[in-house]
Amino acid sequence: MSTNEIELNVNSTEPRMQTKLLQGYTPPVECLRLFSRYNFHDYWSDMCDSNRLPSPFIMSYTREVCSHSVNEYSNRKYWIVYSYSNFRGRYILVPPGRCITSIRRYGIYRVGSIMKCILSSNNNVLYCNIPQHAFDAQNRISQNAVTGLQQSFSDTNSHSEYNLRDLERNSANVRDISR
After folding, report:
1. Could you tell me where the DSSP H helices lie in 101-142?
2. What is the pLDDT of residue 138?
3. Which residues contact 38 (CB under 8 A, 6 or more apart)?
4. Full-model pTM
5. What was the pLDDT predicted at 3?
6. Are 125 and 161 in contact (CB under 8 A)?
7. Any idea where the Interleukin-4 inducing immunoglobulin-binding domain is (predicted)?
8. In the prediction, which pLDDT does 135 show?
9. What is the DSSP letter of 27?
10. CA–CA dist 138, 22 (Å, integer)
11. Residue 166 to residues 10, 54, 125, 163, 174: CA-CA distances in angstroms?
12. Ordered structural domains, the chain, with CATH
């Protein structure tokens, strides 16, 4: 069985027989997986691209983040989780194949924004995707605020370059990042 298959077996009344109840396939995850806890229930959601302003649920209840490493492309994918919207404030750097099991441990008490970055071939520069404007399905932001965001970030649309060593050095989880 591959790592992407899920199989659940339950013992029947006969001690040596097992009945297959569920067998399924889960596709490889190339997104940042966010784990949340609310009212004693656990939830997860995937963030597959940069996001200036996640949903209020993600902002408030995310406790753990995981960056999966399933192929050569995703092995170069880094995620930056910021404490404030629009990629501001304290942040943690999530390298490929790593989980940050308690973001609060690093002083990140809410997920304000998430940036997706790809490591360059020289392994020193991250190219990060910065969306042109915030997406908000509930349209909670006034049109003036959206227009202001569009004007202030219009020059930085698409990608920005960051030095990986500088990001690691300034990250709240600097002691736990190992290369």
Report:
1. none
2. 46
3. 57, 61
4. 0.69
5. 35
6. yes
7. 31-118
8. 54
9. P
10. 36
11. 51, 25, 10, 5, 10
12. 30-173 (2.60.20.10)
* Residue partners of 66: CB distance under 8 A and separation at least 6: 32, 33, 35, 94, 98, 99, 100
d(CA 20, CA 9): 5
3-class state of residue 4 by DSSP: coil
Tokens of 161: 């370059």
Considering just the CA atoms, what is the radius of gyration of the chain in Å?
19
Question: Quick one: 83 exposed, middle or buried, by C-beta within 10 A (0-12, 13-18, 19+)?
Answer: buried
| Residue positions counted in the chain | 179
What pLDDT, on a 0 to 100 scale, did the predictor assign at position 123? 76
Mode of pairing for the β-strands spanning 32-38 and 77-84: unpaired
Could you say which DSSP state residue 170 is in? Answer: H
pLDDT lower than 70: segments of the chain: 1-29, 70, 72-74, 133-159, 178-179
The rounded Cα 56 to chain-centroid distance in angstroms is 15
Whole-number Å distance between alpha carbons of 111 and 55: 9
- The one-letter amino acid code at 54 reads P
